[in-house]
Design brief:
Oligomer: single chain
Strand order of the largest sheet: 1-2-3-4
CATH class: Alpha Beta
CATH architecture: 3-Layer(aba) Sandwich
Structural class: alpha+beta
Length: 144
């Protein structure tokens, strides 16, 4: 059974780091980070990290283990993490790199405006309005 939950224990953090090590990544958690993990029968198969700073919530990564890709599990993981954010009053998630995957999942290209000058680190970026994301249906191909 697939479940999505907020990272909460040291054991989960250790298991997440084991998965991330395969992709030359390491998890360093700050108090403003929102990390969700996707579990398949208790085993971590995916994770997403959102960091908050200067009133900006930035998607740092979304990763699905290679042997679980192609089932649109990332869509469910994004929705789980973004539902948590929406319940915390967060309306927009930013991503400061290019990503065709995120563009397919509801992010749109945006340009910095004058009122964003001190908060956004790049002139162009991707942004997802969470409420708009939830107006679209979930796309998981996995059948239970």
């Amino acid at each position: 059974m697939i479940t999505i939950k907020k990272l909460s224990t040291e054991e989960e953090k250790e298991n997440l780091n084991l998965m991330l090590k395969h992709y030359d990544m390491k998890e360093d958690i700050n108090k403003n980070d929102i990390i969700h993990i996707m579990l398949d029968n208790g085993e971590i198969i995916g994770a997403t990290k959102i960091s908050s700073y200067n009133s900006i919530e930035e998607l740092i990564y979304i990763i699905i283990r290679e042997d679980k890709r192609g089932e649109d599990l990332g869509d469910g993981l994004l929705r789980g993490a973004f539902n948590y954010c929406l319940n915390k009053g967060i309306k927009n998630i930013y991503y400061f790199n290019e990503s065709k995957y995120l563009l397919k999942k509801g992010f749109v290209e945006a340009k910095k405006t004058l009122d964003m000058k001190n908060h956004i680190p790049k002139d162009s970026f991707l942004v997802c309005n969470i409420e708009n994301l939830f107006s679209k249906s979930c796309r998981s191909k996995r059948s239970e």
